Amino acid sequence: MNKKLILSLISLGLISFLCVLIETSLNVTFPFLIKEHNININTASLLTSMFLLAITLLMPLSSFIIYKFNTKIIFNLIITLFLISLIACITTNNFYVLLIARIIQGIVAGIALPLMFNIVIIKAPKNSFGFLMGFCIFLIACAPGLGPIYGGFMMKFHNFNSIFIYLIPFVIISFIIGVFSIDNLQCQSKVKFNILEYIFILLIIVSLILSIKNQIYLILFIILLTISIKMKNQLIMCITNINYTSGAFVIFFIQFMALSFSLILPNYLINILNLDNYNAGKTMLIGCIIAAILAPVSGKISDKHNPFIISTIGVLIIIISNILFLLLDKNLLNFSISYTIFSIGQGLCASPIISHIIKISTNKTNANAFFNTFQQCFGMFGVMISSLIFNNNYILGFNHVITLLIILSVISLILTLISFKFNQ
């Protein structure tokens, strides 16, 4: 396999990994931030939701940016922006400066993530496509589990600013690897930026976000979506393929679950069971490592065998894990066991489903952009909705969030069947 290709994926994967690591490491610092800045959990969670919003709003532009501009220039830009944002996080004592820095990190991730996956789409051999997709997922899949324990460790043995200080050497390593391995992506056709299409995509995303608190915006969302389909908006037209859309929504719901867990598990353990940040952060560690290891393995299996069976098994395991969260006693051990089972399911189904929906798409670049855009969007929904439910009553709110996740996991099983078995 091409070593230069692997190194370029490692470089961009490391940047994406660090962005997500910060995202989940901050979740265990919410009790500290709430006291330090006199805010509530909804305001503190803006550090996550605004990061994800920045990614979401930039993703639709990813195809245009990646193919319009020199790839090395783009890479140098994201490294520079990331370093600036880290320095801002290290030096500020103001919550809103920290929030702006997180938005900049969202912009960085919003370029790095699709660039990494587009390199696979363009340069990966067909017989290694699923494996390399899984390899990319592997590079960033450890971050949700390592983030809480990393953040907890820094808060226990160092201080809040240390979360950002110790990441700078890794950004430099990513830069060194990327400079020598990332080549310019050649576009086979001229890419044009349609500002009207982009405005409609932004309005669709914003209306969907606003509908969380006011359902009247759901009507606006449906109207905008219908108009976009009639306009033949290139990104939105992906949803007209029911096999693609069903599979994509399985991954969207899994992202919703993963980000919900990263919020509710450590905060329940800290606020209800009185664990410190470091021990609360351990809950997700083993699970995320397993999910990361399984991602390229399941991707490789999907290259050689029908991905339907392994995907279905993965979703069934996710359903079981969510039921366990609801039924078992609420303690560190049971949370760790249940989340590890969830991660096994996630690791088994994510790579095969992603590879499947990209392969069946006629325009793979737009399919990738749509998928990345709304995956981050649903991650943001997970944080926003869970924090709203969780804010008033941690004990009751936890059960309500888990009930919602059980419903979504059952729907995911139905969508998996449709994605693989429904013939248009």
Walk me through what this model shows.
It is a single chain. By secondary structure, the chain is mainly alpha-helical. It has 20 helices and no strands. The chain has helices at residues 3-25, 30-37, 41-44, 46-58, 62-68, 71-91, 95-123, 129-141, 143-157, 162-165, 168-181, 195-210, 216-230, 242-271, 277-281, 285-304, 307-327, 332-359, 364-392, 394-421.
Low-pLDDT residue intervals, each spanning 5 or more residues: none
Average pLDDT figure: 84
What is the number of beta strands?
0
SS-based class: mainly alpha
| Number of structurally distinct domains | 2
What is the CATH H-level superfamily of the largest domain? MFS general substrate transporter like domains
Task: Draw up the topology in text.
Layout: H1 3-25, H2 30-37, H3 41-44, H4 46-58, H5 62-68, H6 71-91, H7 95-123, H8 129-141, H9 143-157, H10 162-165, H11 168-181, H12 195-210, H13 216-230, H14 242-271, H15 277-281, H16 285-304, H17 307-327, H18 332-359, H19 364-392, H20 394-421
Helix pairs in contact: 1-7, 1-8, 1-9, 1-11, 4-7, 4-19, 5-7, 6-7, 6-11, 7-8, 7-19, 8-16, 8-18, 9-16, 12-13, 14-18, 14-19, 14-20, 16-18, 17-18, 17-20, 19-20
